[in-house]
Write a structure and sequence with these properties.
Length: 44
């Protein structure tokens, strides 16, 4: 199974972690949710 790894600074990490926690997502779930939002037809 492929892996995705990237680095973020501490402030970005804390912000992402809080968003993940607030929405009850896993890291994978948050990434997939972002993909769906970006790919959705929102009139752009």
């Amino acid at each position: 199974m492929p892996h995705i790894n990237f680095e973020v600074d501490e402030e970005q990490y804390e912000s992402l972690k809080e968003t993940k926690k607030r929405h009850g997502l896993t890291w994978k779930g948050m990434l997939l949710h972002a993909q769906r939002e970006l790919d959705s037809d929102n009139g752009d």
